[in-house]
Amino acid sequence: MAVSEARPVDHRLAPVLAEVTREISRHGLKAGDPQGAPAVLRVGVEDHVRRIIQAYWTPFQAEIPGRSISLHLEIPEPRVHWGECYLTPDYVSWFFFFAERDDGEIQLTYYEQHKSVRDAIHNFFVHANWYLMTATDRSWGDVVYSLADELQWGKGFEVREATSASPAVQEALKKSTIMWLRWRTPGGEQTMPVWYLYDAKVGKIYVLSGERQQVLPGAERIRECDVILRWKGKSANVAELTADVRVITGDDEEWTEIADRVAEKRLNIPGTPEDTARRWRDECVILELTLRS
Question: Which of 95, 121, 218, 280 is placed for a possible disulfide with 85 were both Cys, Cβ 3.0 to 4.6 Å?
Fold first, then answer.
């Protein structure tokens, strides 16, 4: 799913909602009826949030002035567990996780605050894996999301929810040689255009990193990324999909076969594809991308 054309009441919140849609897409969540669902993520808008929280025996106040995008993730069974996240581009963003104890009391299990909205969203989902999903034996496949009435995805959302098998995605992968990748780094986030080889038979995308014309910072450590596809010859996005990444090095058994195929498609390089692949063995890695949906 690509960045949505979100149009909340306050236009300043549009980039925040766009980041939320990206994370929803990464986790494969689908819209659904909250009634009777095993787990629900409600996306809404809040006005001037003030939460009095008690951590151990010490209470403290978290305040989010003005309007914010809110995420409420609730799992009612076997005992209620829920998370709250309040996202603002102007102040500190907060998130909290709560759980019902055996004696029926509600306790705070974890919280964080972030100056970066992107970090707050990312870490809310990361920690929800442990404090909500693992704690209740649920998975993200059990979660449906619900959008508040005052928020709109905008026209064309059906394209943004495209899967790897959709005709538009397959056409873009086969007809183009350039796509955009976005991945997290220790310093934040990196986005760049890359050339690639797509193998439709196995549904794999291969991206070389290390040669002079294409170096992806931290390529050896990338384990997931967002693939942003665009219409050939246009600036409009086709879709944005999350991919799992496997790093292939010169020591791996399949290196020669894959590197030879990538080299055959690489334009404007001297020597034979076999010579190029041998040179790449010492200098490069190949990222094998598998689209999740």
Answer: 95
| Residue 197 CA: distances (Å) to CA of 264, 265, 279 | 10, 7, 18
Give the residue from 22, 10, 16 showing the smallest Cα distance to 89.
Answer: 16
Q: By three-state DSSP, how is residue 241 classified?
A: strand
What is the residue-averaged pLDDT of the chain?
84
CA distances, 191 to each of 15, 101, 185, 228 (Å)? 16, 43, 10, 10
C-beta of residue 136 within 8 angstroms of C-beta of residue 76: no
| Domains of the chain: residue spans and CATH | 11-147 (no CATH), 162-291 (2.30.110.10)
Q: Give me the half-sphere count of Cα atoms (radius 13 Å) on the Cβ side of residue 188.
A: 7
Write the pLDDT tens digit of every residue in 219-245: 999 999 988 887 665 556 677 888 999
Query: Is residue 18 within 8 Å of 6, Cβ to Cβ?
Result: yes
CB atoms within 10 A of CB 181: 24
Query: Which residue do the tokens 């005992």 mark?
Result: 79
**What is the side-by-side order of every strand in the sheet holding 81-87?**
30-31, 143-147, 39-55, 58-75, 81-87, 93-100, 106-114
**Integer Cα distance of 173 and 179 in angstroms:** 8
* Number of other residues whose CB lies within 10 A of the CB of residue 2: 24
Q: Count the residues in the chain.
A: 293
